[in-house]
C-alpha cells in the first residue's frame, strides 16, 4: 500500500484532502544534488545505470517533498532501442544519427522487446519502487508516437520542423507505417514499466502543438489512443500531456486517458467547464513564475488552484518542465504553498 | 485609387469577388531575386536604403502575384532608434547589445521622432508607393510593445524567455514604464508610416503566446490597444497578428483592430463562430504545407477557404512567415489556387 496516494486518487477523481503536486523534470539540473551525480556521469549513463537513475529519481521526494516520483529516463531511449544511434550533446540537446526520411529506413527499424532492449529502464523502475518504500507513487513515461517520430525524422530538436512536415505531407504512408510501429513499441514499453512497478503513466506529446488540428488528429491523437488501448494495466492511471495543444480537448478527453496535462497558456476553469468532470486535469503554473519572489509564487499558485476551483480531480504541476536555473528554495516554497492553500478547495 | 483593393475591402468586410492573399515574409530569402540583392548588401543596409527596400518589397507583387505589398523592414528598428545597438548576425538572428534589465536602463531610452530617427523607413514607404503605381495596397508594420520589450530584455531571440519573465515578475513597474514608452513610439512610428503612404498596418505580437492569459492581458493586450487608440489614421485598417494566442479572442476582437491574424493551429470557422462577424480574419495555412506537392497544396488551401466559409472578411495568408527554403513555384501555385478557388465563396 502506498502511504501518500493523493496523486493516484486525484488521477481517478476520488476524494482527496488537498491537491497533490509533482513537477515535470523534478529530477533535474536545478537540484545541486542532481548536478553532483551528473558531474560524474554522462546523461545516458545515468539513464542506463539503475542505481544512478534511482538515486536522482528519489532526490526530489526527499528534498522538495513532491507527492509523486517520476522515473529518471529519456523519451529517446525508444528510438535508440529501435536501432538508431543516439547521442546527448552537451548544451545542444539530443542527436539521432541517420534520421528517418524514407520507407526503406522505416522498414529497417525494429519491433522492440522491452524486457531485453530496455531492460535497464525496467530495472531502474524495480529498484526505485524498492527504495521508495511505498512513500509515494512512481510514474513511468514515454513520448507519444508523434513526438518520437518528430525526433526520429528531424534527427534532434528543430526550429521549423521542416523535415517532419515534408515527411508527413510527401510520404504519408511511410509516416503512418512508422507511427504504427512506434505505437506498438510504446505500448509494450509502458506495459512493461507497469509490470515492473510503475503506478501511473504519463505520455508526453511535446510536439503535438506544431500541427494543425486536422494533422493533429491524423498523426498524433489516433496513435496516442492506440497506445492507450494497447497498454496492459490494472487501474494505473494514464496522463496525456500535449504541450501547445489548445484545441480538440473534448476529443483528447475521450481517448481513454484519466488525466489531461495542460500548459500555462490554458485556463483550467475554462477547460474544466468545456470537457466536464469526466477527466482529471494536471497543471499548469508558468514555469518561469519560479523566478519570482516567494510572495508572487504564492499568489500565482493560488491563482492556479482557484482556477481549477472546488472539488477533486486536480493535480498541481508546472505547465512545462522546470528550468535548470531555478532556485530549489523557490520550488520547496511552491510545494508548501500548494499543500497548505489547496485544503480549502477540498472541504466537503 | 488603388487598382486591386481586394485586400483593403476584405479588411473592412466589404463585398469582394474573391479572397485576397498576401504572405508574411513574402519579400524574403525564398525568392532568388531577393537573394541576389541580399548577396550584395547586408540586411540592415537593405532596411536603411530606400531603393533596396523598395526593390525587394515589390518583387513578390511582380513574381508571385500577391494582392498586397508589405514594406521590407524589421521590427527591431524601433529599439535601435530608442538607443540600443542592433546587429543582425548571419544565421543566428538579431542581437541587441546591453539588454534592458533595470529601471535606470529604461529611463535611458528615448522617445523617438520617426520623421528623424526612422526617416529611412518613411522614405522607403514613399518610394515604394510611387513605384507600386497603385497596383496593390502597401502594408506598414511594427512589433507589438510586448514583443519589442521581449527582444529588448532578452537581447535577441530566446528559448525559455527567462530574462523577460524575471523582468515582469520582479520589476513590474519598470516593465510597465518601458511598455508605455514603446507604445507611444510604436504609435508615432505607425502614424508616420500612414502619413508617408501606408494603406494598412499590421502589428506583430510574435511573443504574446508565451504568456499566461492574465499576463497577456496585463503586459501585451492593453498596450496593443493603447497603440491602436493613439495611431492617427483615416480608414487605414489595422491587423493584429498575435502568434500562439489561442485565448481571449473576444477581447482581442474588441481593441479597435479591423482584422485578427491567426496561426495554423486555429480553426477559422470556430473563431468566426466565436467572435461573430464584427472583425475580419487573416490566415492561416501551415507554412510547411508549401513543402508539399501542388495537389496537396491545393487541397490544404481549399480546406482553409472552406473553414472560413462563405462571405466577406477573409484574407488568405500563411499562419506564420514563409520559410526560406520554399520553392517559389509552390508559392505561385498557392496564390493561383486561392485566386481561383475562392470565387465560389463570394457568390451573392
Folded structure, characterized:
The first copy, chain A, is an alpha/beta fold and 348 residues long. The first copy, chain A, has a single domain, classed as TIM Barrel, CATH 3.20.20.210. Helix content of chain A is 47%, strand content 11%. Chain A has helices at 6-11, 32-38, 43-48, 50-63, 77-81, 103-108, 114-117, 119-132, 145-154, 162-170, 172-196, 213-230, 249-252, 268-275, 294-308, 328-341; strands at residues 69-70, 86-89, 93-96, 138-143, 200-204, 238-241, 259-261, 280-285, 314-318. In chain A, the strands form two sheets. A seven-stranded parallel β-sheet of chain A has the order 1-4-5-6-7-8-9. The first copy, chain A, has a two-stranded antiparallel sheet with strand order 2-3. In chain A, α9 crosses α11 (172-196). The longest helix of chain A is centred in the middle third of the chain and has 25 residues, at 172-196. The radius of gyration of chain A is 19 Å and the shape is globular. The model of chain A has no long low-confidence stretch (mean pLDDT 97). At the A-B interface, α10 and α12 of A face α10 and α12 of B.
Layout of helices and strands, plus pairs?
The structure is a homodimer of 348-residue chains.
Chain A: H1 6-11, H2 32-38, H3 43-48, H4 50-63, E1 69-70, H5 77-81, E2 86-89, E3 93-96, H6 103-108, H7 114-117, H8 119-132, E4 138-143, H9 145-154, H10 162-170, H11 172-196, E5 200-204, H12 213-230, E6 238-241, H13 249-252, E7 259-261, H14 268-275, E8 280-285, H15 294-308, E9 314-318, H16 328-341
Parallel strand pairs in A: 1-4, 4-5, 5-6, 6-7, 7-8, 8-9
Antiparallel strand pairs in A: 2-3
Helix pairs in contact in A: 4-8, 9-10, 9-11, 10-11, 11-12, 14-15, 15-16
